[in-house]
Amino acid sequence: MSDASSPATTAAPDMLELAALLCSRVCHDLISPVGAIVNGLEVLDDDPKPEDREFALDLIRKSAKTASARLQFCRLAFGAAGSSGAQIDLGDAHTMAKGHIEDGKCSITWNLPRLLLPKNRVKLLLNMLVVAQHTIPRGGMLTVDPVGEGEAMSFRITSTGHNARLPQNISELLSGERGPAADAHAIQPYYTRLLAQACGLTVTLKPEGEAIIVTAS
């Protein structure tokens, strides 16, 4: 008989399933702004009044900007981002992070130096930001600080905001105590753990006072 108190586990996804789930995650991020563009174009097709036309054009502009920012972020956070052994400028990562995450509710304080880091470390940082954003569903501040220096640098992200909390199961997915469910939401923290392992690091998620801390060390 199995121990009912042991954590639930599922088999790790194979490479094909991992790729499919990451693609689903990217599509999930793009559905909303692309759908808004389609809605705006439908309004224009109906030969609207001038005020409705201006509203539709404004919706299309904002949604196209959001879709572009999310695509650029996802390309860096989930994509190949150059050849094996490539390095990525942390300044570029900052730009991508701001475009994707800052939305009027959530903002970023970036305390990292501008330097080149191995691409998996930068991809890990961007995925840690996504994890951290989930801890402040009503918005707030993400403060990014370095841990160490040079190419061995890792990261600490402090989430502060109203009702900051630990999202269900994410800590276990990051630590490996729980296997990933077969959905696009669970695959992102699982992928974050894979990136950390590739960098020889471990990602932890824990409360500290009223803040939530995401650390790679």
UniProtKB/TrEMBL annotation:
Lineage, uppermost ranks: Bacteria, Pseudomonadati, Pseudomonadota, Alphaproteobacteria, Hyphomicrobiales
InterPro entries membership: ChpT_C, HATPase_C_sf
Residue intervals of the Histidine phosphotransferase ChpT C-terminal domain: 91-210
A Pfam family the protein falls into: HPTransfase
Protein name: Histidine phosphotransferase ChpT
Cited Gene3D superfamilies: 1.10.287.130, Histidine kinase-like ATPase, C-terminal domain
